Amino acid sequence: MNTEKNYMKITDRFISTWLLIIFLVLSILVFISTWQAKRNLPPYVGKQLSEIEMAEVIKRNSPLTSYVHLSPNADFSRKSKIKKITIHHMGANLTLKHLGESFAKKDRKASSNYAIDN
């Protein structure tokens, strides 16, 4: 009976140790991928753009744009041309600045390409 209990303790420790190792490895991988993704973002993402930076972004995207706020939740850079648009109603009367600030929140985990204010 004692041998069986010792075997169970050793087995439990072995499983616990491996689960801990797996958890640590996955945590490190998540940290590295997050760090790498952050390094790939343009330097002006998530901050108020200067006129020159805004003009550069508008030139690359659309001359119809009048305000730019790049969310850290977006994917950079665009790999193909825009082929379609999907219209979503926000249910609020927001200015472009407030809409940009709303999408800039990390916990929102969303981004938008273009917005139209009232």
Number of strands: 0
Please, how many helices?
A: 3
Describe the largest sheet: none
- List low-pLDDT spans: none
How do the helices and strands follow one another from N- to C-terminus? HHH
The shape, in one word, is elongated
Distance between the termini: 77 Å
Radius of gyration: 24 Å
Structural class: mainly alpha
Counting copies of identical and different chains, the oligomeric state is single chain
Measured as a percent range, the helix fraction is 40-55%
β-strand percent reads under 5%
Mean pLDDT: 77
Account of the 3D structure:
The chain is mainly α and 118 residues long. It has three helices and no strands. The chain has helices at 2-39, 51-60, 96-103. 47% of the residues lie in helices and 0% in strands.
Short summary of the structure?
With 118 residues, the chain is mainly alpha-helical. It contains three helices and no strands.
Topology:
Blueprint: H1 2-39, H2 51-60, H3 96-103
Structural key phrases:
118 residues; 0% strand; mainly alpha
